[in-house]
Amino acid sequence: MKKRTLVSKIMTSDVITLNRTNSLETAEMLFKKHKIRHIPVVKGDEIIGMLSYTDLLRISFADAINENEHEIDTVVYEMFTIEQVMAKNLVSVNSTTTVKEVAEILSKKEFHALPVIDNGKLKGIVTTTDLINYLLDQY
User: Fold this and answer.
1) Does domain 7-137 have CATH number 3.40.190.10?
2) What are the extents of the domains in the chain?
3) Distance between first and last Cα of the chain
4) Packing angle between helix 128-137 and helix 99-108, nearest 10 degrees?
5) Strand ranges, E, within the chain
6) Which residues span the membrane (predicted)?
7) pTM (2 decimals)?
C-alpha cells in the first residue's frame, strides 16, 4: 500500500455545489439525480457549509420517495433554508493531505465527507466511499 498518497488522487474534483439561496427541494433533486450524499454549500468560491442527505432525512420523509420520482411533497422544505439545515463548523483538508490523514480524521469524527480547500477555494470533496474505493484498489 502506498503510504504517502495524496487526497488529490482520490477526491472528487468535479463537485456538485449549492448556494445558500437554493431550495432544499433543489438539494434533494441533486442528491437523487447524481446519487451522492454530500453537497458543499458555497458563496462564490468560498465554502460556507456542507449539506448531507442525512440532514434532509432529519427534517423530511425524503427516503420514502422513489429515487426516480420527481414529484415530492416539499411543504417541509419551505419551512427551512439550506443555511438552517447545513453543517457550518466544517473540518477541511487541502490537496496535499495524505489519504492516511483523511482516514484518521474520518474515523474519529461523526461525518463522512471532507471538503478539500486550497488557498480558500473549494477544490474537491473526499468521502468515506472514496476512501473505501481507494483501499479496495490496493488489494
Assistant:
1) no
2) 7-137
3) 9
4) 130
5) 18-19, 38-43, 46-52, 113-118, 121-127
6) none
7) 0.85
